[in-house]
Write a structure and sequence with these properties.
Blueprint (H helix, E strand, L loop, with lengths): L4 H5 L1 E6 L5 E6 L34 E8 L7 H8 L15 E4 L6 H9 L3 E4 L9 H5 L2 H17 L10 E2 L8 H10 L4 E2 L3 E2 L10 E3 L17 E6 L2 E2 L1 E2 L5 E2 L11 H16 L6 E5 L2 H5 L3 H13 L4 E3 L2 H9 L28 E5 L2 E7 L18
Parallel strand pairs: 3-4, 3-14, 3-15, 4-5, 6-7, 7-10, 8-11
Antiparallel strand pairs: 1-2, 9-10, 12-13, 16-17
Helix pairs in contact: 5-6, 7-9
Amino acid sequence: MQLPLTLFVLCSSLVVNTEGAILRHQYLGPAQPCSPAICKLPSCWCSGTDIPGNLPKDKVPQIIMLSFDAAINNQVDGYYNELFSDGMLKNPNNCSATATFFVSHEYTQYEMAQALYHKRHDIADHSISHRSPSTWWKNANYSELTDEIAGQKEILRKWGQVNENDVVGFRAPFLQIGGNTMYQVLYDNKFLYDSSMPTWDFIDPPMWPYTLEYRSKQECVIPPCPTNSFPGLWEVPMIDYIDSKGYPCNMIDECTAPADEQDAYNLLNTNFERHYKSNRAPFPMFMHASWFKDYSFTLKAVKKFLLEKLSYGDVWMVGVRHAIEWIKTPTSLDDIENFSPWKCDTPSPPPACKVPNVCGFPDDPHYLWTCTKPCPPHYPWVGNPDGN
């Protein structure tokens, strides 16, 4: 009997993870060239520089996407409090500006992650171990990546008390993506987006986020890049900055070291202007909090920059997933005050506990800081996110 063609394209396969559990996923086949006539919002968007919804530039809100990678703990939490705690960073609708935190597990104090979540910041996935060498992420198999990525999603749910439906983004450690295997894991575990792929070819005008159902025009800087079709999974490209020496850098803390506060501000402002004056693709401010630690003036520069831009009236600072919500439903600045995903009129997630539960383990040097009780018998880790 001849089977329908769709059964050849959407074929299921079984994978067994390290605990012996059977994982089921669909293989969707190679991505085909993207046609705007077929790939339409809200579910699909071709890679490129076109403004979603064909809106004129002056009707497009300039989105700023600020993100921080790595563990959240007392070494960095003070910087986040200083940046956000006084409530001065406001969007034009008077809601607090928000950032995205790509959280890796080791050394994270989860009551601090939960406190950021309570303030409506996006909490995203940066793996459990963030292990070295970087080539591990390039070569890892489906089960290994599932343990790392889906495992961290579960850790954020159980120990950070972050709703699993809110953990929708991923960034690969060292930006070392794992090709079709990694994106299959993201697709199967219902992630909304990845943001791990830098681009130098698409900075002027900059590239907009796009879906991975069809073939991407973005160059492959750190292979292996995805070549299969992953409907509904978005790629948020890491648009390179041009630093003071003319070099490209995709993480702000990797740019040429700024000499002073004005130099740090100029780095941000010069690159922002390229977005703001062209197609207004979302402006990335992707960094590690170590930039604030290494240079005492950089936090002041960032806050000065954000306060200035948010005063424009057409600039908004939202988490990455909220930027994607706008792209799905492009809304003119004339109507942006009524754009529901950017409102803050629903209750925020519950606050974190005032005194965390600090768990120690006789067979492990790690400690687990969490509002969840009781302590697990073992430190949550790869293959054992519950710590059972």
